[in-house]
Amino acid sequence: MRLTLRKKLLLMLPLLGLLPWLGLRYFNAINQVVDQSQIQAARLVAEAAAANIVNRAETKNWWALSANPVDSGNDLEAAAPDNPNRVDSSTTSPPASHPATIPVYGLRQPLTLDGFFSDWPEHFGLTRLEGLQLRAAQYRQRLYLAIEVEDGSRYYARAGIDFSDPARYDYLDLVLDDGQRFRLMAEGPGLFRARIPKRRYRHRSTPIEAVWWEREGRYQLEVTLPVSLLQSTSELLIQAHDFDGRTGPVRSYPLRLTPLVSELQQLLGNYSQSDQQLMLLNANGQTLAITEGLGPLSLHRLQQFIDSGREASIRGGWAAVQVPVYPQRPDGPRLVVQIASDRMALVQRQSLFDLGWQTLAVLLAVIAGLLWFASRLAIRIKRLGSELKQRFDDQGRLQSVDPFSDAQAGDELGELSRDGQMLLQRLQGYTQFLERMPRTLRHELSNPLNTISTSLELLDTETDPPMDSRQQRLVASARRGVSKLEQTIQSITEAVSLEDALKVESVSAVALSTLLQRYVERCRVDFPDQPFELSVPDSTVWLLANEFRLEQLLDKLIDNARDFNHESAPIQLQLSLEPPGLVLRISNRASPIDEQQSEQLFELFSSERQQVGGSHLGLGLYVVKLIARAQQADVAIFNQQDRVVVQLCWPHEMLNSTIDKVR
Fold it and tell me: Distance of CA 23 to CAs 32, 345, 347, 568, 633, Å?
């Protein structure tokens, strides 16, 4: 598998990914420290408040008073059989068997008694009954009720009304289970006091104050009364008398309303702040005292924590703990504290969050930059390699020395481009020198060779004195040396000239099968001692090529096969149509070649001939390669059993184009 620069960089990215992982672990660790500090702060508040409650409770009976169960099935009216002001049962709706439980919420400060509910905290729950809505709150010794009653027609009491007269007005009665009855009866919208109806008295005012306001289709009352009225009971009956001008039916609403312990409420109020809430529960889970809260979801969130049974929890920036008031009594009364994260913790958490995102953004930018840099570097390197390949032709000859694209760059690639261009310029000069060398040698050596040849001829014709046999052998040897030298110079010159000639020669449609048949017949005449075998297709095979160059190529291959052939074995020529294309194989029986060095046999001055006295310079296969490439054929040499095979393969496109031209 080839690994590019981009792939190598991608393999390094997991190491860079450790940085955000470490940052995330650090962020989580700091968050845990902040969370534990918030839980510990809430626990300290709870323990301090619990210790204060224990000190105050030594002389109080808070737990026994609040823990007494109340029979939910008692009839509040039946609790006072001698009550002379008992409402006739024919005009009273029968009480429900199960009183509705009304939660009492703690207040941080007293409410303004004005008949409007705008100053009531929105998160205080509203109990909805048929024809009536109610909610309750407590501040120290005062209990507040917000009551809305559906009533289509309002009849106010007249001044000096006699309670013994039939009721011809609208009012509400608050009836305790000990028989006490308080009548909320107004002479008009505004502030008034409740009354205690007695036959012997015209009226009697009470410490219960209320404000009556009329609304469309209803009226509302904001009531305040001392908590002491409900300290001995938890049940309350509200009777709503609705006079419609003829009759005055009464709707009854039995309620269970357990006031908070005022002393405990006042004690917890000392710990009440804008960012924390406290709740005190007895062993039965009843609320004894509670501070106002921290928002609309405060009580719901606190109740969820209590129901979970956990000792501590932190979620969404809220820390909550519950501790037993008496450590030795874990099943006894409990104190629950809920604290919102302070500003320092919020700032710290937000700062860590922002820092984490910034670090991640910087890391992503660094990774993107590295990828861009690696991609850019890879593109420049590939472009440099591509431009370098374009400087050479298919035969590996240098074509141009134009500047590279990055030659003006100031980095290492720019320096490499300039060095490569300088190297190509030197290579061009050396190549031109080598190309001129054969012609130069031919020109420079022709005159000395002619002089030597002339001298040898004159020496051979010299008769006075005649040469002896030894001198004649020396002259003959010198003539053979001169002949070989002339042949060598001629071969080198032809090989160099052949490259230029092949570039401009024209091609035409050649019947290759017919050409091979004629060529083999001529070879059999020229070399009668050498057997030849030819195999061609039945149909004529046409090829777009230069016929003269094909015969020159065959001359080189047959000459090479004859020189290496063993024991007068037949030289085989086989022409066939195969999936790669048109294939021509020329083989002879010879010693196996080194296939790892097979490509080098087609290079200039490369040969495996072992004849010391031969005149071969390794130009035959080099000329074959030049002609084959000019004819768009691939040439290869390989071993096949006991034979050495030279194979030429023309692609199908050459055959198709040839057929089109012939047609």
Answer: 14, 19, 18, 83, 63
pLDDT of 376 reads: 84
Across residues 84-105, what is the average pLDDT? 54
Average pLDDT over residues 93-122: 77
Res 645: pLDDT: 93
Q: What is the DSSP letter of 644?
A: E
Amino acid sitting at position 423: L
CB 658 within 8 A of CB 509: yes
Distance between CA atoms of 88 and 181, rounded to whole angstroms? 14
* Omega before residue 651 within 30° of 0, cis: no
187 close to 157: Cβ distance less than 8 angstroms: yes
Tokens 């005055």 belong to 248
The kind and range of the H/E element at 578 are strand 571-578
Is this model's pTM higher than 0.70 or not?
no
CB neighbours of 340 closer than 8 A, spacing ≥ 6?
Answer: 275, 276, 294, 317, 318, 319
Q: Three-state SS for 295?
A: coil
621, 600 contact by CB (below 8 A): no
pLDDT tens figures, 59-79: 666 665 444 433 333 332 332
* pLDDT per position as a tens digit, 522-536: 888 888 888 999 999
Which pair of tokens denotes residue 452?
Answer: 């030597």
Lookup: tokens for 91: 């005009």
